Amino acid sequence: MEDPEKNIPVLCLGPKGSGKTTLLKKLQDAEGIDYTYSPVPTIGTNIYDVYYLNKNGKKQSFSIREVGGEMAPLWSNYFDGIEKVIFVVDTSNLCQISAAAVMLYTLLAEPKLKSAKFILVLSKMDAAYRQMRNEALLMLQYARLCSELQNKPILLEASPLTGEGLDTLRTHLAETKRYTKTAN
Q1: Range 1-16 average pLDDT
Q2: Strand partners, 69
Q3: Are 98 and 25 contacting, i.e. CB atoms less than 8 angstroms apart?
Q4: pTM of the model
C-alpha cells in the first residue's frame, strides 16, 4: 500500500522565521493564534490537513507539508509530485527578503517544480508593516518574475494574526486536483 505522507501535493517553504507555521495553523482554524502566540521554529517537517467546502457544499480536505527554513538544503527531497508551492516571505524583516529572493529563484529554476504553481505569500502584512509591501516586491523583483515566467506566481498578502488573505489562499489551494479527500 502506498504511503499517504509521500503523496502530499502542496509544499510550504520559506526562510526560517517567515511565518509558515503560524500561517498554516491559522489556515487550519487552530485556536490561540493571536498577538500572544509564539511559535517554535520547525526543525524537520509538519503536515497540516486543511478543510474547506467544495462547490457542492461538501466538506473536503487537502494536506500541506511544511518544511522548516533551517532545512533548505534538504528541500529538494520533497519535490516529487508537488503541484503547488506556498512560498512565505516575512515582509516585516527587510534583511531577510533578499535571502528569500535567492531561495525563491532557486525553487523556480528547479526542474522538478517546473509544472508546480507557486503562491508567493507576503506574510505578517499587519497594519504596521503595510508600507513594507512595495519594498518587498522590489527586492523580490516580482515584476521581473511576472514578465519572464510563463507560470507566474500568484501573489497573496496575508496576516495570520488577523486572518487577512487566508480565504484567498484556501481557495487557491482547493484547486489542487490530486489527493483531495472528502471529510467526514
Answers
A1: 73
A2: none
A3: no
A4: 0.86
Share of the chain above pLDDT 70, in %: 82
Residue 59 amino acid letter? K
**What tens digit of pLDDT does each residue of 66-112 get?**
999 999 999 999 999 999 999 999 888 888 888 999 999 999 999 99
The candidate with the shortest Cα–Cα distance to 64, out of 80, 45, 43, is: 45
In whole angstroms, give the CA distance from residue 114 to residue 85. 11
| CA–CA–CA angle 101, 150, 89 (5° rounding) | 25
Grid coordinates of 78? 520533497
Distance separating alpha carbons of residues 73 and 112, to the nearest angstrom:
15
Using alpha carbons only, how large is the chain's radius of gyration in Å?
Answer: 16
Phi, psi of 41, deg, nearest 5: -55, 140
Tell me the angle at which helices 94-108 and 132-139 cross, rounded to the nearest 10 degrees: 40
